[in-house]
Every structure is written in C-alpha cells, then in structure tokens.
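Hey, weird one. I pasted the Adenylate kinase family enzyme sequence into the form twice and got a warning about non-standard characters only the second time. First submission, copied straight from the form history:
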Amino acid sequence: MDLHFWKPGWTEPSEAEWREKQRALLAGNAWIVDGNYAETLDLRLERADTVVVLATSWWRCAVRALLRGCRMPDTLPEGCEYSAWQRLRAEWRLVPLILRNRHGELEHEQAIIASHGQHTNRHVLKSKWAIRKFLDGSPDVAGRGHGDGSN
C-alpha cells in the first residue's frame, strides 16, 4: 500500500485522493493488499473475500520493523528518494508506536472488520507457527478461521 499511498517527494495524498486511488487498485478481480491504513479499511473489506490479521506479539512486530529497515524495497514511489539510513531511521521510529498502540490498533481494526467484513473468511494469526501453517495451507489452521483455533 505504501508504494501507492505516497506522492512524489513523500507527500501524502488527501483522504479523497487516497480513497479514489484505492478504489482503482481494488477494481480488479483478484488482488492481495498488505498494509494497515485503518482509515480506508472499509474500502478493502467491501471487495475482500478473505482477511488475514497478523496479531503477533509487539516485540516480534518491532523486530520485524527493524529488520525491514535494514532492507531497501525493490520499488519506491515515483519521485521519492530513500537512503538506507533514512529507511532504518523510519522503521526504528515505529518501535515506540508499536509498543504504545499494540492493543488499541488491533481492537480498532477488529471493530472495522466486524462492521464491514461480515462476509469475509477471517484468520487471526497470533504466532509464527500459525502463520507458517496458514501459508502452507494446513487445514488445521487455515480452515478454522483463526490461527489460535477460535472463530
């Protein structure tokens, strides 16, 4: 989603621009969207048939953010420069946000999913094991609706 969100020079679009851009991106028959953007989650839920929520521990999420900071993306938004140092610094700044918002953000997203995504097949994956089993297509995780066995 970040690749499509940012305008040249790391300028944020208006809410109306961002919603319109997502409508265009979601117009196809098949797509996978990775990212948060809770303020426009309703748009994705309108057309989604499956929702996968990674609800891992805050420290695992923070470590992954830091590791992501060490790797440069293959593609950047048009007109955006991004050195390795800027990337690492941006991801490092996410760590306190992850810690501070670890409960509220997930609850907020779950409320939006409950309101707009009743028709979706939902999977809440809470561990590395559950994620691995889901990606492997294991029926003991993927078929249950949640990575912890609950629905």
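That's the output from the first submission. The warning seems to come from a hidden character in my clipboard, not from the data itself. Confidence is low (pLDDT under 50) at residues 142-151.
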